[in-house]
Amino acid sequence: MIFPDGVAYLAFAAISLLTAVLALIMTAKLAPGRAAPDALRPAALRPQLDLLHRYEFREGYLLSPVAEGDAFLPENADRTGAYDMLGEVLGGLHPDVPGCMRALRKRGEAFALTGQMGDDRLSVSGRQEEGRLVLSVGPAEPGDGRAVVDGQTFAKLQEEVGDMRAILDATAIPTWKQDDERRIVWANAAYLALAERFLAGEHGRASLGWPLPQVFGDQVTPLPAQGTVRRCSLAAADPDAAAWFEVSAEPQPGGAAICMARPIDRLVAAETSLRSFVQTLSKTFASLPTGLAVFDKRRNLVMFNPALVTQSTLGIDFLSARPSLVEFLDHLRERRRMPEPRDYRSWRDQIARLEEGAADGTYQELWTLPDGDSLRVTGRPHPDGAVALLFEDISQEVTLTRQFRADLDLYRSVLEDDAAALAVFGRDGQMMLSNAAYAKLVGG
Fold first, then answer.
1. pLDDT average, residue stretch 385-412
2. Nearest residue to 72 via CA among 153, 18, 137, 20
3. How far is it, in rounded angstroms, from Cα 32 to Cα 154?
4. N or C end of the chain, less CB within 10 A?
5. Strand partners, 225
6. Are the beta carbons of 104 and 91 closer than 8 angstroms?
7. How confident is the model at residue 240 (pLDDT cuts 50, 70, 90)?
């Protein structure tokens, strides 16, 4: 009776020793960067896989103890690098684990994944809990499409989903997801409100139900390219109630896409008002006899009126091509519509003076052209570094002034040659004109 008991004791001791050795071998094989190959996974490891492993970290440091013979971490693991070590080991269960663990550490995003180790299905989950990061690894029993997930992680995931839904419903930007056949599979509250506003009447009902219609219809077929926007509008019974949006799309796997429609009613109204204002200015400038040339901050021509075409004799095609200030003045010189410079250096200096003077509003010169015409050129600064040049044809004014001065010189000459003393006084008694005989008479 004693012998069999001793044999049993020795057999039990041998089995225990073998189990411990195999566990150590398996722990070494599950060291950082490698998961245990299925063919080498001993049966003694299965009790470890049937248990829930919980690892708690704070600021990257492992807080929880490591059990002897832990299937995923060695007992003497470096606690400052255990998080990265787990990421490498658990990456053998599911390729998305390392990325999810980085997102958990960086943004606190919870996750739950199911991986495979031989015939065993394991659940890997992570969450943020009271300032700590918690990783859980345990069995995931398949059945009717269900898998076991750590309850606290599942609750955290549900909380995050609820928060995301609340945030998306609170935003004023209509957002929706559509599949590869353009069917709406999800939409936020702003999109639902938009559909109720513009499409409920078309579908003959007061409210819309599932499946939801595509609000923008063919306007988003095909979808805008990634990184671009497409301007779309929704017409209403009242033309003033039409809505404008900029639609963007972010491609998703399988041909799906997440789309967003940013309201731009104010932008469109501002653009309409600006166009109306520019048209009004254009009509006003068109009737001005003064030539107008507006150059932007890069010194390209952005606006001109018909009077400039007449005074500069430059073609509309050239002016519409938005020439630079230097090109504009160069063509004026070729057309002999500006004073001929004495040399190239003085020509460049003249351009520099014109640009600098126009920028601070001090440039004003009289251009006497080779054909006898005269232009008064004035520079005016505009917001954002733009400048405007005004070309006023004063040829008649200059001609009349010259004629008047010539006549006045002639009259003076005649009076000076007259022997009779002559003086002209104004209404205020002040002498306006006299000749030499008068001056001699009064002793002046």
1. 82
2. 137
3. 27
4. N
5. none
6. no
7. low
AA letter at 42: P
Distance CA 366, CA 376 (A): 5
pTM score > 0.70 for this model?
Answer: no
**Cα radius of gyration (the chain):** 45
Q: List all residues 6 or more positions away from 394 whose beta carbon is below 8 Å from its beta carbon.
A: 366, 374, 375, 376
Phi and psi angles of residue 68, each rounded to the nearest 5 degrees, phi first: -65, 130
Say whether pLDDT at 309 is over 60: yes
**Helix segments in 75-216, DSSP class H:** 82-90, 97-107, 151-170, 189-199
- Of 277 and 4, the structure prediction assigns the larger pLDDT to 277
What is the mean pLDDT of the segment spanning 77-86?
89
- Rounded Cα distance between 424 and 434, Å, is 6
Tell me, what's the pLDDT at 44? 44
CB under 8 Å, gap of 24 or more: what pairs does 346-349 form?
none
Burial pattern 52-71, b for ≥16 Cβ within 10 A else e, equals ebebbbeeeebebebeebbb
The vertex-78 CA angle with 77 and 84, nearest 5°, equals 95
